[in-house]
Amino acid sequence: MSQGVAHVAGKERLSLPSMFSLLSACLAVVCLFSLLFGAGEIGPLDSLLILLGKLDGTTAQYAEEAVFVVQELRLPRTLIGLVVGMALGVAGALLQAVARNPLAEPGLLGVSAGSAFAVAVALMLGASAATLRVSVAQLGALAGCLCVLAAARMRGVGNDPVRLVLAGAVLSGLLGALTSMILLVDQRTADEIRFWIVGSLAGRRIEDLHAILPSMALGGVVTVLIARPLAALALGERVAVGLGHHPQLVRLLVIGVVAILVGATTAVAGPIAFIGLVVPFAARALAGPDIRRTLWLCLPLGPLVVISADIVSRLVVQPSELPLGVLTALIGAPVLILVVRSQRLPTL
Amino acid sequence: MLSYRSAGRPWLGMLIGLGLCALTVGHASARTLSTAYGDVEVVDLPERVVTLYEGALDTALAAGVTPLAAVSTRGGDGVASYLQARVEDIAIVGTSREINIESVVAQRPDVILAAPRLPEEQYRLLSRIAPTLVPASEPYQPDTWKEEARFFGQALGRETRIDEVISRVEQRAAVLSEQHSQESASLVRWMPQGALVMSEAIFSNVLLAASGFDVNDGDVVKQGRPHSDPLSLENLARIDSDWLFLATLNEEGEQALASAKSSPAFARLDVVKRDQVVPVDGQLWTSATGPLAAEAILDDIEEALR
Lengths: 348, 306
Description:
Number of strands of chain A: 0
Number of strands of chain B: 13
Helix content of chain B: 40-55%
Number of domains of chain B: 2
Keywords (chain B): Ion transport, Iron, Iron transport, Signal, Transport
Strand content of chain A: under 5%
CATH architecture of chain A: Orthogonal Bundle
Order of helices and strands of chain A: HHHHHHHHHHHHHH
Largest sheet of chain B: 6 strands, mixed
Low-confidence stretches of chain B: 1-8, 19-28
Structural class of chain B: alpha/beta
Mean pLDDT of chain A: 81
Pfam families (chain B): Peripla_BP_2
Number of helices of chain B: 14
Organism (chain B): Modicisalibacter luteus
CATH class of chain A: Mainly Alpha
Largest sheet of chain A: none
CATH class of the largest domain in chain B: Alpha Beta
Shape of chain B: elongated
Subcellular location (chain B): Cell envelope
CATH superfamily of the largest domain in chain B: Nitrogenase molybdenum iron protein domain
CATH superfamily of chain A: ABC transporter involved in vitamin B12 uptake, BtuC
Radius of gyration of chain B: 21 Å
Number of helices of chain A: 14
CATH architecture of the largest domain in chain B: 3-Layer(aba) Sandwich
Protein name (chain B): ABC transporter substrate-binding protein
Oligomer: heterodimer
């Protein structure tokens, strides 16, 4: 079946491997730019010379500053952007496939709301945005996801992806309301959470990335395992059962993976809106509806959008930076509209 | 006269006061203040005072008047912690952004001391409850806090007392500035993605300047954004002054300093290596104004210099 799709697609589109390499090349260029441009005084030329190890003709102090900016500030955020982008893109694609709804978004599963709530509670209990640990947000995300899973396991609900998304939406609404309540009652929390709630790659340390790598690896492995059954599920419940898969189990696994991936990204970078919605959309427009093809394209596309947005966020309001969460939406929206207007979109 | 006042009709009290004034020349029972919303008459030595501005609460306490009610401090549920011991059972009638009009009515105030630039809509409501005094001071000038303090002092009929307090603050700052050579200082709040730099024009920075510091806001705070602006981690060197005052909104100052130090960009600043970073209470340093706040901030500066 997938070969058929590829065949049909091949007449009007590039083949999957060439599209993947093209996007990866774009991503490599964007990553390089991410190392070259910043809100500070270290310009692209000097940064390039540092990368080549050939910066001279400047004072030792400037050289040291420049090396620090490139290696300790721009490199970590580029790497984190890479991982966060991949995770959000893949999570979005998985969720849209299992919910059979192109508007499903990781936020809908109660994952983002769960971590936002956990952070609000932690702040209320006396933590400050500057001292907050990655684990708090990740625990919140997992708790939120477990609630949705519990709802999804209820009799009859598991067979209906729409009810699953509904359960997630209800939980998101509930947690959002609880968070708002905390913020209204506790002024200090409201004042602190604004540093976290918009999402940002700035000031994240490479150790934060280490903390979430196990979750990412786990998510990656499970994704590889369930890609084929998920593609079968797209053909219908009965076909999937006929092919020897267990739709219920696949759905549970997908939700678990999405929660792990989104929880980990939220923990390290805060809630970053829109990526999980836009990236799978664009990937599907390029590769067709087969989840196995979409997932491949999500890998370079997600970081491409995240890192581009991050570069812009550094350049528009120097010497300050805009929060990334604001820019992903600003960049994502026109991209999405372009994609939607230019092609007939495959349905799920 | 008291009974009239408690009936919520201060103008009657004022009329009688004016009559008395005509009889006993020199002892005015009512006075006229020029406010942002024109001339307003208030009773002399008002007793039931409600403050809707942190600077007004501070000034009233400095003048020896304990207000009945106040608004909560920025980022807190009660009044700022440096004032808490003085007004343990004060009523809270909202936040500086949102005033609960009904609670204000319930206090039956003689006079309401409000924040500069109180919206006209709110002014109309409040001035029906009691004479509402909005200072006409120009914001974010070096002398703004003194102007406001004198205005509120006048409103309470205790201007001499306030003048004394202000000159005491001026003297202390002058003494402090002689204790050290002219050094640069920056005031920031820390967040993981960078620093929030406080403008040169805010109250605590004005006091730092008076105490002999060159306040350095790294040219970050733009015109028209008078309070604070974020600074990218890449540009932290701009606030690498001789002293760095680190404001936190809760009392875990040392902990906030430790977490800021965990950021390599912060830890490599010279000021951090020299250990000249001073964690300070954000409620006091970035939100409060008034003579008592000035004293408390000077206490902190003195402590840091010691």
